[in-house]
Specification:
single chain; alpha/beta; about 20% strand; about 550 residues
Length: about 550
C-alpha cells in the first residue's frame, strides 16, 4: 500500500463565493500571487490541496531532499523585509529549511487567512453568459471569480510506480513526491529505490547509510555533479543582505535569472589544456559552476561531448567496480539535456557493501511480489519500496483539473499535442485564465521563485489595467499564440536540450505528446517580451469591454 501524507479536512466554507480572483495552488507562485493581488485591492482567495503552504516542498519530504538552486536565489525579492529578516544556513537549502521559509513568509504576510487548505480544484469552467470562472472543489465549495490564476507548478503530479503487483507487497511503499510527514525508519530494513533522477540521486546516499541493504533499480543513468554544499557564515549573509537589491537586479538580467556564474566563453576559444583545467576546477568547486563554464555547452555538440567525457571519467574514478561504473555512466543523450542533478556522495555510495545496483535495461522489473521485486532474472527481497519515479511534468497539474474555456472547449483538447499558450501566461479561448510559471515560459530552465514573482506582478498589473479601462475579459489572439510558439520551437531547435528523452519533453509519461514546451531563450529575454507586450497596449491580446457585454445581454 502506498504511504502518503495525511491531509485533514479544512474548516467549513460557504457553498458558493463570489470573488475578483481565485488563486489555485499555494506554492511559491501562489503565495506571491495572493499577496500581490491582495495588495492591489482585489477580493482574492486561494485554495491549496495540502494542509499548508510550500507547494513541492510541502509534499517532497523524502530523505536528502534539497534544492539545487542557491538559497540566496531561491527566495523572494519583492519585499526587502523578507530578505533582511530571513537568514539562510546553507548554500543549498534542505527541504525543512525551505518549508520553514515558506511558513515564515506566509506568517509575515498573513497569507493563511485568505487560503482554504486541504482543498483541491476539480473543475474550472468559464461561464460565457456571465464572463466568470466557476471553480468547484473536492470539499464542495463553488467559487465564482472574474479572474482565475493557476499556480499549480510544473512538478505537482507524481508519476507513481508503473509496475504491476503493488497490492501484493507485504511491506511499505512510498513515493518521494508524496512522502509522509512522520519519520520513516530504515534501520534493519531491506530497501529498494526505483528511479535515479534528481529525487533518487538525493535519497540514495541517505537511505544507504540507514538501511541494512539498499537495492537501486536504474533504467536511465543521470549525469550528476557534486553539490559540495557548505554552511553560510554570518559575515557572508550580512554581505548578501547589504547588496541584495543590486544582486537581484543583476540576476534578473541573466539567462537563468540567478546568481550562479555563467561565462560568455565558448569552449574552443581556449586550449584543450585550459578547457580541462577549467572543468577540473569546476568539478572541485561543485554546485552549478560546471554548468556555466562554456557558453556553447548546450548548443554545440562537440563542446557537449568534451564535457560529457570529462564527467564520465569522474564517474569511473569515483566507483571502484568497473562494471558498476559503466552501468552508472550515461550515454545516448547530451549532458545536461536532462535536468542537471547535484549530489552528495552519490557515485561513492555504490562502493558500499550494502548497496546493489540493478540495471533495468538488461534486467527489467517484471512485477512487485509479496516479498519484494521480481526482475527478469531474480526475486529481490525487500521490506520497503521507494518510488523516485518523477512527475507528469510541466502540464500534468493543469491537465489533472477539468478546465473548460469559452464555449466549453476543454484544455485537454487544446493541449492534446502539447502545451500551447502565449508567453506561458494565457491561452486563446480561455479568457481571464492566467498561469503562474506556465509550461511555455522559462519554467524549469530559470530561477523559479523570481519567475513566479515576475509572472504575478505582470498578471496583477494586467488586471489593474483592465479594471481602470473598463475591460471585462482578456485573452491572446490565436495569431499571437502561434507566433510565440513558433519562436519557442525555433529557439529550442538551436539547443541540444530537446534531444534527450526526459520529462522536459514528456517522454516519461506513456501516451503523452513528446514536445519540448519550455521557452529556452533566457529569463532576461522572456521578461523583455512580457514587458514589451504590456507596454504596447497588450499587443497580441484582445479585450472585451463592459459595454459590449451589456449590449450582448
Amino acid at each position: 500500500m502506498v504511504q502518503t501524507a495525511t491531509i485533514e479536512t479544512g474548516r467549513q466554507h460557504p457553498a458558493r463565493r463570489r470573488l475578483d480572483a481565485l488563486v489555485v495552488g499555494m506554492g511559491f507562485g501562489g503565495m506571491c500571487m495572493l499577496h500581490t493581488a491582495r495588495e492591489a485591492g482585489l477580493d482574492v482567495h486561494a485554495i491549496e490541496a495540502g494542509d499548508d503552504v510550500g507547494g513541492t516542498w510541502y509534499w517532497n519530504r523524502y530523505p536528502g531532499a534539497r534544492c539545487d538552486v542557491m538559497s540566496i536565489d531561491y527566495s523572494y525579492s519583492f519585499l526587502n523585509e523578507l530578505q533582511q529578516e530571513w537568514t539562510w544556513s546553507e548554500k543549498f537549502a534542505a527541504q525543512p529549511e525551505i518549508l520553514a521559509y515558506a511558513s515564515f513568509v506566509a506568517e509575515k504576510l498573513d497569507l493563511r487567512r485568505d487560503t482554504s487548505f486541504s482543498t483541491r480544484a476539480t473543475s474550472v469552467v468559464f461561464d460565457d453568459a456571465h464572463n466568470m470562472w466557476v471553480v468547484e472543489t473536492d470539499q464542495g465549495q463553488i467559487y465564482e471569480a472574474t479572474y482565475c490564476i493557476m499556480a499549480t507548478g510544473p512538478l505537482s503530479i507524481p508519476k507513481g510506480i508503473d509496475v504491476p503487483g503493488q497490492e501484493k507487497f507485504g511491506g511499505e511503499i512510498y513515493l518521494t513526491g508524496r512522502w509522509p510527514h512522520g519519520t520513516v525508519d530504515f534501520t534493519g530494513k531491506r530497501v529498494g529505490i526505483i528511479g535515479t533522477g534528481s529525487s533518487g540521486i538525493q535519497a540514495i546516499p541517505v537511505v544507504a547509510e540507514q538501511a541494512e541493504h539498499l537495492t537501486v533499480f536504474q533504467r536511465t543513468p543521470s549525469f550528476t555533479i557534486p553539490m559540495r554544499n557548505s554552511k553560510l557564515t554570518p559575515e557572508y549573509m550580512a554581505q548578501v543582505k547589504e547588496h541584495y537589491p543590486r544582486l537581484r537586479t543583476i540576476a534578473k538580467a541573466t539567462h537563468t535569472g540567478g546568481m550562479r556564474p555563467v561565462s560568455t566563453r565558448p569552449m574552443f576559444s581556449v586550449t584543450t589544456e585550459e578547457a580541462q583545467q577549467l572543468l577540473e576546477d569546476g568539478w572541485n568547486a561543485g554546485g552549478q559552476t560546471i554548468f556555466g563554464l562554456f557558453s556553447d555547452l548546450l548548443y554545440d555538440q562537440q563542446t557537449n561531448d568534451v564535457v560529457a567525457a570529462f564527467v564520465r571519467g569522474k564517474i569511473r574514478e569515483a566507483v571502484n567496480d568497473p562494471h558498476t561504473a559503466e552501468v552508472l555512466t550515461p550515454h545516448g543523450y547530451p549532458i545536461f539535456s536532462r535536468r542537471p542533478c547535484l549530489d552528495t556522495n552519490y557515485y561513492e555510495t555504490f562502493n558500499r557493501d550494502n548497496v546493489l545496483l540493478v540495471d533495468c535495461i538488461n534486467e527489467p522489473i517484471e512485477e512487485i511480489i509479496e516479498t519484494g521485486i521480481r526482475t527478469g532474472k531474480r526475486d529481490i527481497p525487500l521490506d520497503i519500496i521507494i518510488g523516485a519515479t518523477g512527475y507528469d511534468g510541466l502540464t500534468g497539474a493543469m491537465l489533472a483539473v477539468d478546465i473548460k474555456g469559452r464555449g466549453g472547449r476543454s484544455l485537454r483538447e487544446k493541449w492534446a499535442g502539447g502545451a500551447h499558450s502565449y508567453l506561458g501566461l494565457m491561452m486563446e479561448g480561455f479568457p481571464n485564465l492566467f498561469m503562474i510559471a506556465g509550461a511555455n515560459g522559462p519554467s524549469a530552465l530559470a530561477n523559479f521563485v523570481i519567475l513566479n514573482e515576475q509572472n504575478a506582478d505582470w498578471i496583477t498589473r494586467c488586471i489593474l489595467n483592465m479594471r481602470a479601462s473598463g475591460q471585462a475579459t482578456i485573452e491572446p489572439t490565436i495569431e499571437a499564440e502561434d507566433r510565440y510558439m513558433d519562436l519557442l520551437i525555433e529557439i529550442a531547435g538551436r539547443s541540444l536540450i530537446p534531444k534527450a528523452k526526459s520529462w522536459y519533453v514528456g517522454a516519461n509519461i506513456p501516451g503523452k505528446a513528446n514536445f519540448f514546451p519550455i521557452f529556452a531563450g533566457g529569463f532576461a529575454r522572456y521578461i523583455d517580451m512580457c514587458n514589451a507586450a504590456a507596454s504596447d497596449n497588450y499587443a497580441g491580446f484582445v479585450f472585451k469591454d463592459q459595454r459590449s457585454l451589456v449590449n450582448q445581454d
